[in-house]
Structure formats: structure tokens, C-alpha cells
Amino acid sequence: MATIREIVQAFGQRDGVDTVLVLGRDGLPIDSTSRNGLDIERVAALVPSLVDACTQLGQAGTRGEFHAGVVEFGNGFIIVSAVSAEALLALVVQSHADVGGLLYELRRYRSAIAALL
């Protein structure tokens, strides 16, 4: 069975993925890898606020609970997935990354990743 470290490294090796971060809902990093020296702790501290805002938006729009989100910026995307009630996974990716493929894999392996935490 794979470890959370192996999952993080596998996502980190994907083309266009700069940073992979597994964190608690409290914003504390659990595991990560980064190609570009990103401030992991800063990103980890901000992700729960984004998830909270998306959760509220989903409730207001009667869409249910938050599972995943993609935020587009001038230089790429940040993908956030709720892998369990206690943990989140964030990917910082370049503009050319296969966002659809990454979302598919996150959805497909969400429960397997959660079981590792």
C-alpha cells in the first residue's frame, strides 16, 4: 500500500505541478513537495479560509458540501480538494498543466488518500 509521502511525490512529478501540499483543516502542513521554493506554511495557512468561503458559497447556492475547487491566476492554478473531514490537498500548478486530469485523479483517489491519513 502506498504512503501519503508516495502520493505527494507522485502528484509532484506530474507535468506542470509545482507544489503538492497535504494539510489539516487547521492550516498545518502534513506533507508537501515543491519545485519552486514556495512558502508552504503560508499557503497552508491560507487554504482553510478558501475552503470555508467555498463551503459557504456552496451552501448559499444549495450545491452541498465542498469537495474540490480550482482557482485560476495569471500564472497558473491552485486546486484544492477535501480528501477527508480532517485533511485537504492543494496543488499549485502551471498554466499548461492538465487541470482536468488532475481533478479526475483527485476525485478517483480521494478515499484512498483519506485512508492514508
Describe the structure.
- The chain has 117 residues and is α+β, with helices and mostly antiparallel strands.
- The chain has a single domain (4-116), classed as Dynein light chain 2a, cytoplasmic (Beta-Lactamase).
- Helices cover 41% and strands 29% of the residues.
- The protein is built from three helices and five strands.
- It has helices at residues 4-12, 40-60, 99-116, and strands at 17-24, 29-34, 68-73, 76-82, 87-93.
- Strands 2-1-5-4-3 form a five-stranded antiparallel sheet, with helices on both faces.
- It is globular and about 35 Å long.
- The protein starts with a helix and ends with a helix.
Write down the CATH topology.
Beta-Lactamase
In which range does the helix fraction lie? 40-55%
Helical element count? 3
Largest sheet: 5 strands, antiparallel
Strand arrangement, major sheet: 2-1-5-4-3
Q: What general outline do the C-alpha atoms trace?
A: globular
What is the terminal-to-terminal distance?
13 Å
The total tally of domains equals 1
Summarize the model shown:
The chain is built from 3 helices and 5 strands. The chain has about 120 residues and is an alpha+beta fold. Strands 2-1-5-4-3 form a 5-stranded antiparallel sheet, with helices on both faces.
